[in-house]
Structures are given as C-alpha cells and as structure tokens.
Amino acid sequence: MIRMRGLLVTLSVALLALAGCTSVSSTGATAPKHIFFIMMENQAYKDVIGNLADAPYINQLASKYGLDSQYFGVTHPSLPNYLAAISGDYQGIFDDCKAGAGSTCAPEEFVSSSGDFGGAQLLTPAQMQRATTQPHLFNGQTIVDQVENAHMTWKAYMQSMPSAGFTGEYYPNNVSAPDGKTVQVKLYAQKHNPFMYFADIVNNPSRLQDIVPYTQLATDLSANTVPNFVWISPDQCHDMHGISQSAATLENIPSCYSDTSKDPVDHSNIALGDQYLSQVVPQIMGSKAWGEGSVIVIAWDEDDYAGYAGCCSSPVGMNNTTLGGANAPLLVISSRVNQHRALSIPANHYTTLATIEKIWGFGCLANACNIKDDQLLTPLFQ
Questions:
Q1: Is 109 in a helix, a strand, or coil?
Q2: Domain interval for residue 267
Q3: How many domains does the chain divide into?
C-alpha cells in the first residue's frame, strides 16, 4: 500500500506532467523531469572509489558530482537488491532465481556453503521458511505504479536483452562453442531485471513493451522521447559482474572473466564497467533530455561476499544481526548541481527510492516509508 506524503504535491506533479512541464517537488525546488537509474554490480566502495587505475572515469565523476560514502546494499545477493530498488521491499528472498509463480528457491546467501562470513544460523527459522517457499512473482506495487499514477512515463533498458518484453532467464543461452560444447553465455540476466518479477507488469502487455533492449536508449535520446523514469541495467560484461571464462572467450571479451583467487579486487570487470559508464553518461549528458533537467543515479547493488553491514531497514536475522549488502558506491549527477557534494549518510536502495519519491511528490512504498526527511539523499539531487 502506498502511504501519501502530500496529496496536493502529488496532484501538482500529475497536472504538470500532463502539461508536459517539469514538476515541482515537495521541497519547493524544481524537480528533475528525467531520472536515469543505472544499476551496477558487486563491488566494494573501497575497490572502486580511489581506484584510479581501473576506474578513472568513475573517480572523475566522484570528484566532480555527488557521492555518498556510506551507501549499502539492502542485503545479499543481487536480486533482492533490485527488487528493493523499485518496490521498497526485498520481498523476503535471498537468491537470484528466475521469475515465475512456480519458481521457489532456498537462500543462496547467508548459508553455510556461501562463503559469506557466516552460515545458516544468521537467518531465523521464519526467514528460512519464507525465503524457501516464496514464489518469485510478487503482487506488491512498484515505482512503475507511482510513475503511471502521476501521468508520467517510464522505460527499462536492458543491455543484451534480445527483444522487448523478453521473458527468458538468460541471453544468449546454450550457445555452441567451437569445441562442440554448449555454453550458457548469460550476458543478459533476468535477476538484474526486477520488473519481470512483479505480476502487474509481466501480466500487462503494454507494460512489458516498456522493458526494451538497451539499443533503444540511443534512439530515444536522439529523438528526445526518453521517458521520465529511466532504468538501465548493463549486461554482465559491463556492470562489473562478469561471466564464466568459457563464455567470455566465446564472446571475445576475455576480460569479462576475472580470477579473483590471487587478488580479491576484480580489476578487469571494474575496468569494463568504467569504460561502459564513460560512454553512456556523456551520451545522456549530451542529450536534449539533460537540458530539460535530469539526474543520473549510478548505484552498485551490493558489495558481494564482503560481509553484511547495512542500514535503513535491511533485514535483521538471528541475534539481531543486520543482514545488509555491505558498503558499495553511489554516485549522483544532476544537471542542476554544478558542484561536488560528498555525503556520509547511511543509506541504501530504500533511501534512493524514498528520495526519488520525495522529489517527485509521490507517496512511499514499503520500507521507503521508514526513511525520514533528514536521511534522504536530496542534497545530491537538487
């Protein structure tokens, strides 16, 4: 259920959006017309920020624009963080399983074989039970509902997804290698596409058509038809995640496989992600949409396998242990903020969602409702 933060503000957002105007936020400042949310993968704040060798462009952005040094994943692994980012709820799961009403999975993190600094004892029996039996098609509301209710527009751009509304778990999948073996390449991964996990999106053909291949972004930016809310998921060779060695070889991107057994810093995948951002960020900033008033959010879903520090309504397990996603980077670039702003505010994907909701005058979703005004990341946006 959405709790309203101000009916009059929400009505003004809707009316201005209908008129094609930039809205006014509940802070009294002019709100951005476009918000671009780029989700990256699996890296520690300390491994990216300050790493000039692998991530020179990201560090250039961090020194010039907005940065929060106390940003955390909501939990582990990837999928619950993506769900949290658009719905305000990690949906009670700890896995990366495929979407579907018949899809259930035991936790993949916080179990004894995960290597994630703990074991099954970190989850309560109730958490284990819920996570194991939870169907992966959720009925909760998302930012899609909020955007559409305000008569605004949205679109999700998925790199390496083959077609709009594609419902497969991976792509490419089961590719024949020169040696005759079959390789799951997995450039596109459904676990990085949270929209496919919500019933009122996947059961709505018109909404499915707004989940499109990444190649559509350049077309929309050029034609100035980019929507108000833009979600971007780079593929696993460009979001700093990486793929298997055989898949990377087959795709002729050998640096997309990284052996971290000798050095825990994922140098090659960090470098690939930095190169990707050095292309897409200037592309957005050079568009007409940028001049209309825009914000680019670049968040990392979690710091993979680096403990479970967290904040801001992350799940709590046995012995009152916070089951967070550890410290990961967050960058915010605003067309209307012309100075470096560095925050040290404990925040996570719920905080980012709450900040977007606040500046666009929406209500709030689930755990985003727990974020107080003085905990918001508004100074990075406005």
A1: coil
A2: 2-381
A3: 1
The pLDDT confidence band at residue 27, using thresholds 50, 70 and 90, is very low
Q: Quick check: 189 pLDDT over 50?
A: yes
Average pLDDT over residues 39-53: 97
Write the Ramachandran bin of 96: left for phi over 0, alpha for psi from -120 to 50, otherwise beta.
Answer: alpha
Residue 293: CB atoms within 10 A of its CB come to 17
The domain that contains 138 carries what CATH number?
A: 3.40.720.10
Distance CA 291, CA 314 (A): 36
187, burial (CB in 10 Å: exposed 0-12, middle 13-18, buried 19+): buried
Kindly indicate the confidence band of residue 108, based on its pLDDT and cuts at 50, 70 and 90.
confident
Model confidence at 6, pLDDT cuts 50, 70, 90, reads very low
CA-CA distance, 221 to 284, in Å (whole number)? 7
Task: State the pTM of this model.
Answer: 0.92
C-beta of residue 15 within 8 angstroms of C-beta of residue 8: no
